[in-house]
Amino acid sequence: MKFEQQFSQQQAQTQTQKLAMTQKLQQSIQILQYNTEDLIDFIDNKALENPLLEVIQPSYSTNYSKPRKSSGEEMNYLSQIPDNSTSLFEHLLDQIHLNYRDTYLRQLVLYLVEYIDLNGFLQISLEEAAEKTGGSAIQLLDALTLIQQLDPAGVGARNLQECLMLQTERDGAAPHLAYVVLEEMFDELVDRKWEKIAKKFDISLNDVQEIFDYIQNLTPTPGAVYGSTEGLFIIPDLTVKIAEQEIKVFSNRKSVPEIKFQQNYFERMKKSQDPEVMKYLKDKQQDYEWLKKTIQQRGDTIYRVGSAIVERQKEFFLNEKRPLKPLTLKDISEELSIHESTVSRAVNGKYLETTFGVFELKSFFSKKISSNTGERSSNDAKHLLQQLVDQEDKAKPLSDQKLTELMKEKGVSISRRTVAKYRDALNIAGSSKRKRYD
Asked: Which terms are listed as keywords in the entry (predicted)?
């Protein structure tokens, strides 16, 4: 048997179009994804690298920390943020120096305070503290007791159970037996084994319900109120104003620092005629022009995407019930002829301000669900689910299967698994944990 092989070589020229992911392009994509705070940090860093770039900070930087309520106007959304200038550590130190004499015990108190985290919990065991300080177990326990008498109630606790007990102990309005139930049957209370608790303390289920309701109003993180508020400020990218049923969208570009080219400095440096200096100046000038153009494009993209979203969700802004229509990233991308990933970057971490609240742009997207009453969104389903739970008999809460059947009767057909997912998203407990004994 004979095999014949033939080989041939020939040259051919083909033309293909390919997107080169340059560093500048990568940064442009990243800038679109930045929220306003990240963008400000990026611009500030660029200014450190480029002496020809001057940054003019937005005017809000001087007055956002103390929002005021103007007469006839709604409270600025920033007023919702607590103004805490004292940290938990500083607050505890002030109390210790004011209330306790300078003794060895106070030294141990000061040592333990350094191991209290931002939530108010002690992060070192008394055994380890005794080993490191040389103090006895009794002395360390006494020091911890002094800390636990400080404000806020619950500070210095070593676990959640102790934290709740400390708060209950100092509250004269706490229900009878609340402290004892926390101390002796904490796990049973959490697991809702209330019949067992009622039997042990010879009380009614209604009494256990009262104790449970009281404990739910206690704070599991007593020190958190003294935490830093840095990073909690929301700087909206867009503002929506409504007048006579007409919706207008405005871009808040003044919230972004303005960048200017230092022409005078550029001209002075140019006089040297040094080739290296000239190349450096050219590179920095190009960096400035690129940054200015990219920031402008970012603002334009967010405005276009935000305006398209508002147009699609008009009812949300005009109807006090705030209904949302089904809307996907693909809907907006097709309308604006841009990629879905661009829409995603333009809505994540970007906010829209209204007279009734501040909303993240991505919150206006909602999946379509099957319905026999017309087009419905997943937000409609969640709203209906919440209504059904609010109206249920608390002594006989509705199971997920029953909720599924009731929703189907009202025109929303979703699976039991989806009901459970929506229930979790709404922070609604399961039927067994919603049962009340009032």
From this structure: DNA-binding, DNA-directed RNA polymerase, Nucleotidyltransferase, Sigma factor, Transcription, Transcription regulation, Transferase
What the block records as the tokens of 81 is 């943020």
Q: What's the pLDDT score for residue 244?
A: 84
Q: How much is the pLDDT for 373?
A: 55
Window from 25-34, 130-139, 144-153, 215-224 with minimum mean pLDDT: 25-34
Q: Write the burial class of residue 61 (CB in 10 Å: 0-12 exposed, 13-18 middle, 19+ buried).
A: exposed
The CATH number of the domain covering residues in 369-434: 1.10.10.60
Domain with CATH 1.10.10.60 in the chain: 369-434
What digits encode the pLDDT tens for the residues 419-430?
888 888 888 888
Residue 72: exposure state from Cβ atoms within 10 A (0-12, 13-18, ≥19): exposed
Three-state SS annotation for the chain:
CCCCCCCCCCCCCCCCCCCCCCHHHHHHHHHHHCCHHHHHHHHHHHHHHCCCEEEECCHHHHCCCCCCCCCCCCCCHHHHCCCCCCCHHHHHHHHHHHHCCCCHHHHHHHHHHCCECCCCEECCCHHHHHHHHCCCHHHHHHHHHHHCCCCCCCCCECCHHHHHHHHHHCCCCCCCCHHHHHHHCHHHHHCCCHHHHHHHHCCCHHHHHHHHHHHHCCCCCCCHHHCCCCCCCCCCCEEEEEECCEEEEEECHHHCCEEEECHHHHHHHHCCCCHHHHHHHHHHHHHHHHHHHHHHHHHHHHHHHHHHHHHHCHHHHHCCCCCCCCECHHHHHHHHCCCHHHHHHHHCCCEEEECCEEEEHHHHCECEECECCCCEEHHHHHHHHHHHHHHCCCCCCCCHHHHHHHHHHCCECCCHHHHHHHHHHCCCCCHHHHCCCC
